[in-house]
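The authors assume throughout that readers already know how a fold can be written as discrete tokens. What matters is that the chain and its backbone geometry are given together, residue for residue. A single example would do more here than another paragraph of explanation. For illustration, here is how one protein appears when written out as sequence plus structure tokens.
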Amino acid sequence: MRKWIRERAHKLRVEAHAVWLAARDPRTPLFAKLIGLLVAAYGLSPIDLIPDFVPILGLLDDLIILPLGIWLFMTFIPDPIWAEYIAIAEKETERPVSWRGALGVIALWFASVALVGLYVFSWRYW
């Protein structure tokens, strides 16, 4: 069961990435571009129809809306373009994760929050 879930999650990630790539291609029809950009925006947006912290339903809306949006996008895009971008997205999702890069970004966020905190604290007691 776990293997199936991981495979489905990987496939959804690859397809969502392919939608983003194909939506920016000039060969993609305008209507498909609009659908693709909406699907990508919904997938990346922290604002959902049902918040993710709601048990079961919070993640269920993502598991229903994203695949439906991808399917709708696929119906309006030519098959050769879709196959091209699926291959590109598959290749790009296979690259290893940079833990150093992730730690660097986290360190920058902590430093930014600390600087803002120091700034606010210094103004409060000035």
Q: What stands out?
A: The chain has two domains: 2-95, 100-126. Residues 2-95 form one domain. The mean pLDDT is 83. The two ends are 59 Å apart (CA to CA).
